Amino acid sequence: MDRNKDGRIVPEELKRSLLDLQLKASDGQIDKIVRRMSRVDTSDVRFGEFRKFLLLLPGNSLRHVFDSWAKDSSVDVGLGEDFGVPDEVEGGKPAYLVNFIAGGVAGAVSRTLTAPLDRLKVLMMTGNVSGRTITQGLRSIYKEGGFVAFYRGNGSNVVKIIPESAMKFFTYERLKNEIAEDPDNIRIRERFIAGAGAGIVSQTLIYPLEIAKTRLAVAKKGEYRGIFHCLNRTVRYEGVRALYRGLGASLAGVAPYAGIDLMVFMTLKESWIRAHPHEVDGPGALTLLLFGATSSTIGATVAYPLQLIRTKLQAQGMNASMPVTYSGPLDCFHKTIRDNGVRGLYRGLLPNLLKTLPAVATSYLVYEETRKALS
After folding, report:
1. Closest Cα to residue 78, out of 286, 300, 237, 271?
2. Ramachandran category for residue 156: left, alpha or beta (phi over 0 → left; psi -120 to 50 → alpha)
3. The EF-hand domain covers which part of the protein (predicted)?
4. Among residues 368, 369, 367, which one has the least CA distance to residue 165?
5. pTM over the 0.90 mark
6. For 297-350, what is each residue's pLDDT tens digit?
7. In the chain, is it the N or the C terminus that has fewer CB atoms within a 10 Å radius of its CB?
8. CATH architecture of 95-374
9. Which of 159, 170, 174, 173 is nearest to 104 (CA)?
10. Eight-state DSSP code of residue 92
11. Cα 187 from chain centre
């Protein structure tokens, strides 16, 4: 890497070395790498600094080194709905804007594709669907309102993507800068704390749209004319507090889901690296996609009872057939087990799991194609 043998690496030498390996890096990324290694504020890296920094890295090739330096985040394939934001996008456009738009498009497409299974899940959670199997449930939805009935509530699910993603992104960046010792090289523990905090803030701010999504999905044909009509009726007849029913259960599920999802994903990735020591490029996109689908499935399963309790609390009181039955999350938990046993906490889990892989795959593909088109 030290082309002129002067005991220092300058940005131009680093860039040429990366190009030799067909690794593209912008000037901003190169400068960040140099600043991270240099112990003083200089535009070069001396051998001692290079050696000390290299000792902390897991790989023994320049590809591994560059991966550890430059990739702060990647596509989050948790449930096919959320996306991390890489630092820069080739082509000069602001990275956060390109990835933000690409993530929004991908989320809208994946949610629409899996909307029938999502609505079936909500109806099974609240006990408002006839039939005990997925096929019987889908038939009852079609019989009640035709093909359009499969997508009731999907509009709210798509509309909330933009504000939810924006709040999550900006809160995550703010928390990352506050809690991380080195925001450019954030640790897993710091990423988890910042991510969970961002999830809590974004979920709280957009929660009325979650209420609308659930109630539109549960409602009979013609009960609501749309999102605003649903929210207006909720406030008029039940008060503003009704817009936040189930928020406690929703927030309680953020940390366990995020923690398990991250832990399983990192365990799978590290196991793959140990099993393939000679693969210098690391896991491929398809492998990471499968790791993400697996980790999100396990995380969603563990946190599912809280999601079910949240949904029941959101739907209660919306009409005469669904009166207010629960005083809070603990009361809902107790009565659900009393009436249906422990299995009652997992009603609707199967359609939720069935939608994970197509949602993840669709999100990833649409995200990549949209990002390429924008950049």
Report:
1. 300
2. alpha
3. 1-24
4. 367
5. no
6. 888 888 899 999 999 999 999 988 899 999 999 999 999 999 999 999 999 999
7. N
8. Alpha/alpha barrel (1.50)
9. 159
10. S
11. 18
Residue 319: enclosing H or E segment and its boundaries?
A: none
In whole angstroms, give the CA distance from residue 299 to residue 83: 17
The structural domains of the chain, with segments of one domain joined by +, span: 8-70, 95-374
Superfamily name and number for 8-70: EF-hand (1.10.238.10)
- For 373, the token pair is 């088109």
Which among 213, 219, 270 has a CA at the least distance from the CA of 243? 213
Contact 185, 238 (CB under 8 A): no
Tens of pLDDT, residues 280-292: 667 776 787 788 7
pLDDT above 90: residue 149: yes
How far apart are alpha carbons 131 and 123 in whole angstroms? 11
Cα separation, 325 vs 310, in Å, equals 13
| Dihedral of alpha carbons 138, 141, 143, 145, sign | negative
- Which residues have a Cβ under 8 Å from the Cβ of 208 and sit 6 or more positions away? 231, 243, 244
- Tell me the C-alpha distance between 171 and 187, whole Å: 17
42 has a pLDDT exceeding 80:
no
Concatenated DSSP letters of 108-154: HHHHHHTHHHHHHHHHHHHT--S-SSHHHHHHHHHHHH-GGGGGTTH
Burial class of residue 123 in the structure, from the number of CB atoms within 10 Å of its CB (0-12 exposed, 13-18 middle, 19+ buried)? buried
- Which one-letter amino acid corresponds to residue 179? I
Q: For 14-19, what is the mean pLDDT?
A: 82
The answer to whether 119 and 151 have CB atoms below 8 angstroms apart is yes
